[in-house]
Specification:
alpha/beta, Rossmann fold, seven-stranded parallel β-sheet, six-stranded parallel β-sheet, elongated
């Protein structure tokens, strides 16, 4: 299919804002496609190294928005508010043809609402999980966004019901990942045994998640090791600071240190090498599915967070593992809160590790899911942006 081309693109400026590394990668793919479809377009904004390499002029570095943890957010809030005011002032002066906020909704939606009220067309790339919790945010989105670019197929219909123009563009992870990787090669590269069951454990990227999940995950390893003597576990760790609490949890559960390989990063390689995975809820559940690795999903929220969410009735979905939201029937076993124990996780994982038919059931659905999400997201997103730039094309959302 030929991509649209817009006459006069050399006079267009597109502004983009991304914070996290994942947003920087999304922005880079979008910028490359915009420059291909709209030759001569100028891209500016808050950009990381990938977006800058793709041709974006950085007004500020993306690291300015990369804040993690409650304490850091509170500490940096005055600086972030100053940055947002400065960005809005520069946007109102530059008057770009379109402003694209990439993820980071707490920062970007406020910018989008202000500049849209001033007549600048706005796009938000990657919907917040407003369909899952805090649905009241849709009122802000309706005022802030001319077009929402969705990476999950059911989101388009959700926004249509709420009067927000949206396009499903596909999921970038499905373009990037493919099932059926070379497990033997991945095992060699990681130094894992060529034979015997391998379990990947993805315990989360935040210290609080490690504190809540590390203990029961380690006890699950001990439970499995007693039944599967040849079992090897590979545990990718998001940050070096999380190594120590994980090692402590494994030691407390009596797990032989030689049975578990802790890695800094390399989660995808670990999933390719593994027969099955135990994954803390999040995007990692979708990564595992797209790589074709059967999995069990688990999550424990803090008691305070759980009480708040239940008390305010903020959550509106029955399943928390992303693959289960995208398949006709749930295929990933889920364990939540008090269910996250070795006695519950162990038997389910043992079945996946020892029964090829159980693995094949998940993998068949994961293959269909991959086909559903693989739509060349960068190209589709650029087309959705470009179609807004022709005269009279502003989406009809109520400002």
């Amino acid at each position: 299919m030929n991509s649209p081309s817009l006459p006069g693109a050399a006079g267009l400026t597109v502004a983009l804002v991304a914070g996290e590394a994942s947003g920087d990668q999304l922005g880079a793919g979008l910028i490359r496609e915009l420059r291909r479809q709209l030759p001569g377009v100028r891209c500016v904004g808050i950009a990381g190294p990938a977006m800058q390499a793709a041709g974006c002029e950085a007004w500020w570095e993306a690291d300015e928005l990369a804040v993690m943890g409650l304490f850091e957010i509170v500490r940096d809030l005055p600086r972030l508010l100053r940055l947002r005011r400065a960005l809005i002032a520069r946007l109102l002066e530059a008057r770009p043809a379109v402003f694209i906020g990439i993820d980071a909704p707490d920062f970007n939606l406020g910018v989008e609402k202000t500049v849209r009220a001033a007549g600048i067309t706005t796009v938000h790339y990657v919907s917040p999980s407003v369909w899952a919790w805090r649905e009241g945010r849709i009122r802000t989105i309706r005022k802030a966004v001319d077009r929402m670019l969705c990476v999950l197929p059911f989101e388009e219909a959700f926004y249509a019901r709420h009067g927000v123009e949206a396009r499903f563009v596909g999921h970038p992870l499905a373009d990037e990942l493919a099932p059926g990787g070379d497990a033997a090669a991945a095992r060699r590269e990681l130094g894992l045994p060529p034979e015997g069951p391998v379990l990947a454990i993805l315990p989360g990227s935040r210290r609080g998640e490690i504190e809540r999940m590390g203990g029961p995950f380690a006890e699950t390893v001990a439970w499995l090791a007693a039944r599967l003597p040849a079992l090897t576990c590979v545990i990718p760790v998001a940050r070096p600071a999380l190594m120590a609490p994980l090692r402590a949890a494994l030691a407390a559960a009596g797990v032989d240190p030689g049975r578990c390989l802790l890695l800094e990063g390399q989660a995808r390689r670990a999933l390719v090498a593994a027969d099955a995975a135990l994954v803390t809820s999040g995007t990692a559940t979708l990564e595992s599915a797209l790589l074709g690795c059967p999995l069990v999903a688990a999550y424990r929220a803090s008691p305070l967070s759980l009480a708040l969410v239940r008390g305010l009735r903020l959550i509106r979905i029955r399943h928390f593992a992303l693959p289960n939201l995208l398949t006709p029937t749930p295929v990933v076993p889920e364990f939540l809160q008090a269910e996250v124990t070795a006695a519950r996780l162990g038997p389910t994982l043992e079945s996946l590790l020892t029964d090829p038919a159980a693995r094949a059931t998940q993998q068949e659905e994961f293959g269909k899911l991959h086909g559903l999400l693989r739509c060349d997201a960068s190209r589709s997103a650029a087309e959705a942006v470009a179609s807004l730039l022709s005269p009279g094309s502003r989406a009809p959302n109520e400002p």
